[in-house]
Amino acid sequence: MRSILKLGGVVLVAVLAVMTVRAATLRSRQLHMAPAAPVDARLAESVAAALAEALRIPTVSTEAGPPAAADLEALQALLARSFPQAFAHLQRTPVEGHGLLLRWPGSDPALRPLVLLAHQDVVPVPDDDVSRWQHPPFSGAIDQGFVWGRGALDDKGSLVAILAAIDRLAAAGLAPRRTVILAFGDDEEIGGMDGAARLAAELGREGVHAEMVLDEGSAITQGIVPGIARPVALVAMAEKGFATVDLEVEGRGGHSSMPPAETAIGILARAVDRLERHPMPARLCPPERAMLAYLAPELGFDRRLLLANLWLTEPLVLRALSATPAGSASVRTSTAPTLLRAGVKDNVLAERASATVNFRILPGDTVAAVVEHVQRTIGDSRVKVILRRDLASEPSPVSPLDAEPFGLLQRTIAEVFPDAVVAPSLTPGATDARRFYGLSANVYRFTPVRLERADLERFHGRDERIAVAAVGEMVRFYERLITNAR
Questions:
Q1: Burial of residue 363 (number of CB atoms within 10 Å: 0-12, 13-18, 19+)
Q2: Nearest to 412 by CA among 31, 18, 20
């Protein structure tokens, strides 16, 4: 027994020694670049004023369809007036609908183009929520150093900043070496089935092979990653897929005074409960594993010890991440019941009950695996499982970190936001970017804007706003990105 205990002690000491060495020898993956020139306050105010005007045009997508044609045409006319130098140099390719496909030819046609995405449409504001906004959602108010309005963050801020950057570069007589293509869809908020899909298809017909595609995504946040006081800039190298499943149960109707042992509503409720209590398993997919590798060297030694030794500590890390909604969504295919339908009157048994459950699919899982999981977890043939094929999309491919385009992004972020830690990540929601994988393997999602924790709730939420100073930084980012893309 002593020999066994002694051997165990030796093994334990050896394991701890290995873990300590691995943690102590982690090298930072951050780049140190000469900072870009400070943003002129007048530039930020000028572009913020143009953004405010854009926010006053309610280009709202709803379940009924994309924004009204008149509103989209008004927005596009405003953009042309606001950025005349840009539109004087951009070539427009006609595409069916109101998507914008613009091209700034580069001096070296042999270089593969840079494709920048943004979308013109915004989500609606519920009628009963309008009065709760600090400024009306389509007022485009500029107050307290912020531009207020639906779309300020998602995604007219990026739309305006990209055009402002090109406008400034063109006015200065600068031209890109690499062609820059702008693809601005008009229905991203309802899936991009027409806008982005048509733009990507047109580029595909032209035989475009892009060096990189960059769309909206994660931003620069502070106080979000435990243990890192500096701002963290997350660049998404993939996005989760999605699947919507309807659950349907048929039962006996009749008077509620004589209910059967199991009602349609009860059967359905138990099925939904099983799905919530038994989600798909947690695991570290490649984007999350890469994110931890970039963040680990910036953490204190105790956290580095955990993240440098995932061969041993991965179960502990998964448990810690699963403890919060955001963390859990990053390591598993998430399960979210969103709609329930049943009954017509309080004293009438429902003959039919149905629920809608939305899943956001982790890379490595599939739509088919989600449906199989639902059927197996519910385990009740009385519950009909129906996949909404119009609301299903596989996870995107995972873009590489060792490719030059990721390096371009990291260098540019380091120039414009020198205090930020850069790390790859996974986007939980769907973007127009997934339409463009036929053009490039290098598809990334990043919104170059500084946000506080409270700002995250403003996406699709109340009091959406963006700081005037942040607008200027966004313009500077796109200027440097285009200039650096040599």
A1: buried
A2: 31
Indicate the CATH number for domain 241-393.
3.30.70.360
Q: Are 100 and 182 in contact (CB under 8 A)?
A: yes
Q: 445 burial class (0-12, 13-18, 19+ CB within 10 angstroms)?
A: buried
Residue 176, CB-side half-sphere exposure with 13 Å CA sphere? 31
- Using an 8 Å Cβ cutoff, are 438 and 208 in contact? no
Q: Which two tokens stand for residue 473?
A: 């930084």
CATH fold for domain 41-239+396-484: Aminopeptidase (3.40.630)
Residue 257: CA count within 13 A, CB half-sphere: 0
Please, what is the angle between helix 41-55 and helix 69-82, to 10°?
A: 160
142: tokens are 């500029």
Could you give the C-alpha distances from 238 to 149, 241, 481, in angstroms and in order? 29, 10, 20
Ramachandran bin of 288, using left for φ above 0, alpha for ψ from -120 to 50, beta for the remaining angles: alpha
Question: Where do the CATH 3.30.70.360 domains begin and end in the chain?
Answer: 241-393
Rounded CA gap, 97 and 185, in Å?
A: 9
**Cβ(249)–Cβ(268) below 8 Å:** yes
The full DSSP string for 128-172 is GGGGGSSS-TTS--EETTEEESTTTTTTHHHHHHHHHHHHHHHHT
> What is the pLDDT, as a whole number, of residue 133?
96
Residue 188 a catalytic site member? yes
Q: Mind listing the pLDDT tens digit for each residue in 293-329? A: 999 999 999 999 999 999 999 999 999 999 988 899 9
Q: Which helix (H) or strand (E) holds 49?
A: helix 41-55
Is pLDDT at 376 greater than 70 in this prediction?
yes
pLDDT digits (tens, 9 = 90+) for 225-261: 889 999 999 999 999 999 999 999 998 888 889 899 9
| pLDDT, tens digit (0-9, with 9 covering 90-100), for 145-163 | 999 999 999 999 999 999 9
Name residues whose C-beta falls within 8 Å of residue 189's C-beta, 6 or more positions apart in sequence: 61, 119, 121, 122, 123
Enclosing H/E stretch for 265? helix 264-277
Predicted pLDDT of residue 8 = 63
Taking the C-alpha atoms of residue 230 and residue 420, their distance in angstroms, rounded to an integer, is 6
Give tens-digit pLDDT for 418-429: 999 999 999 998
Which tokens sit at 297?
Answer: 């060297």
Catalytic residue among 186, 187, 188, 189: 188
pLDDT at 11: 64
CATH 3.40.630.10 domain range(s) in the chain: 41-239+396-484
Catalytic residue among 71, 121, 186, 239: 121
Tell whether omega for the bond before 155 is within 30 degrees of 0, i.e. cis. Answer: yes
pLDDT tens digit string along 65-114? 999 999 999 999 999 999 999 999 999 999 999 999 999 999 999 999 99
273 catalytic residue (yes or no): no
Q: Determine the Cα–Cα distance for residues 359 and 242; give it in Å rounded to an integer.
A: 5
